[in-house]
Design brief:
- By secondary structure, the chain is an alpha/beta fold.
- The protein has a domain at 2-47 and 92-155 and 250-312: FAD/NAD(P)-binding domain (3-Layer(bba) Sandwich).
- 25% of the residues lie in helices and 31% in strands.
- The chain contains 8 helices and 16 strands.
- The strands form 2 sheets. Strands 1, 2, 6, 7, 8, 9, 15 and 16 form an 8-stranded mixed beta sheet that branches.
- A hairpin with a 4-residue loop joins strand 12 (187-193) and strand 13 (198-206).
- Helix 1 runs parallel beside helix 3 (92-103) and helix 1 runs parallel beside helix 7 (278-294).
- The longest helix is centred in the last third of the chain and has 17 residues, at 278-294.
- The chain binds flavin-adenine dinucleotide.
- Residues 9-15, 32-35, 39, 41-46, 111-112, 136-138, 142, 162, 164, 202, 204, 244, 246, 264-266, 270, 276-279, 281 line the site of flavin-adenine dinucleotide.
């Protein structure tokens, strides 16, 4: 049995940010992930200036694919405009590995199955024992399932379904396109170019509203590929998208039960307008670690519910 103060289940941005904060304060932890790193993650990889500040990422020292945008080309119900904004893009397979490397902690490859409480400790698969348990295992986090449901069940209406594909496309356009609420999509579609001719294209929207309309995400994926062709952005590419789902932030999520704390997608912290999850996941990881370190309440204070206001702030 491995004993530790804090056991973190999941090594995505939420879990690694939490580990980073604990490490800086000398708190002992073990980080588990079912996947071996570097691991792929279905995600467009858009990050905001705040993410860079929160994790102290210096673009000049970042070893992976890193892109800077000064504008987004937006279409909203047929209305076209340009939004001047400074934003960034990374590739998740590299970014998540970089976050882990920075913690200088070993990620133990282990798929968590069973969690139980014994006195003031949490026992995981009869192999790990910890005083604090961090649920950072994403949408289907085992900590959430074992300890927080049914009362901590996310609000069904806040489920976002998304599909994307990231691939190399020689001669890719460098402009970032976002299409909001087009052709009945309760969400948005994107064309996100990165450096070295890597492109990420995708579509995401409210699962409940698609169902209400008798519509499917697959249909909107097909509309997106037609649009990419019509705009001359992607032609002659055999598309093969991957899908994933996650929850937007609830009004009053159940953050903590005893010494078990949920962070990132396990909690559902993505912004209500853009479904931005990387930044809020990192911030929730830092807030949870801070609560453990200082013995203070765990809150989502300082984590924005919306992305748009910060997009409108020019940060150069
Ligand atoms: C198509 C798509 C596009 C997106 N685009 C963006 C974007 O451009 N910008 C943005 O800000 N957000 C985006 N998001 C949201 C963003 O990807 C998530 O909010 C973010 O990854 C959440 O981070 P996390 O650390 O909470 O979870 P994750 O990154 O999902 O990490 C969870 C980890 O837990 C591990 N795990 C799961 N179960 C177990 C288990 N039983 N035992 C051990 N380990 C386990 C997994 O292997 C994984 O490594 C997108 C989401 C989707 C679906």
């Amino acid at each position: 049995m491995l004993r530790t103060e804090v056991l973190i289940v999941g090594g995505g941005p939420a879990g690694s940010a939490c580990a980073w904060q604990l490490k800086q304060h000398g708190v002992e932890f073990i980080l588990l992930d079912r996947a071996e790193f570097p691991r792929p993650k279905v995600c467009a990889g858009w990050v905001t200036p705040r993410v860079l500040r929160d994790i102290q990422l210096d673009p000049a020292a970042y070893p992976g694919n890193f892109s800077v945008f000064n504008q987004f080309l937006i279409e909203l119900k047929g209305l076209r405009f340009t939004l001047q904004t400074r934003q960034y893009a990374i590739r998740r397979v590299e970014f998540d590995q970089w976050l882990i490397n920075r913690v200088r902690a070993q990620v133990i490859t282990h798929q968590v199955k069973e969690i139980r409480q014994e006195g003031e400790y949490y026992l995981v698969d009869e192999e790990y024992r910890a005083r604090y348990l961090i649920g950072a295992g994403g949408t289907n986090c085992p900590v959430k399932r074992a300890l927080f449901e049914p009362e901590g069940q996310p609000v069904r209406g806040s489920l976002i379904v998304a599909q994307e594909e990231e691939f190399v496309y020689p001669g890719a356009s460098r402009l970032c396109h976002l299409w909001f609420l087009q052709q009945g999509l309760p969400g948005y579609a994107w064309y996100f170019p990165k450096s070295e001719n890597v492109v990420n294209v995708g579509v995401g929207g409210s699962a409940a509203r698609l169902k209400e309309r008798g519509d499917t995400l697959r249909h909107h994926w097909e509309l997106l590929t037609e649009r990419l062709y019509a705009y001359g952005l992607v032609r002659d590419h055999p598309f093969n998208p991957l899908g994933h789902s996650y929850y937007l932030r609830a009004a009053q999520p159940l953050l903590r039960k005893g010494n078990a704390l949920l962070i990132g997608d396990a909690l559902g912290v993505s912004t209500l307008d853009m479904g931005e999850g990387i930044g809020p996941s990192i911030q929730s990881g830092i807030n949870a670690a801070t609560a453990i370190i200082n013995h203070t309440p765990y809150t989502l204070d300082g984590i924005s519910r919306y992305s748009f206001p910060s997009l409108l702030r020019l940060q150069r």
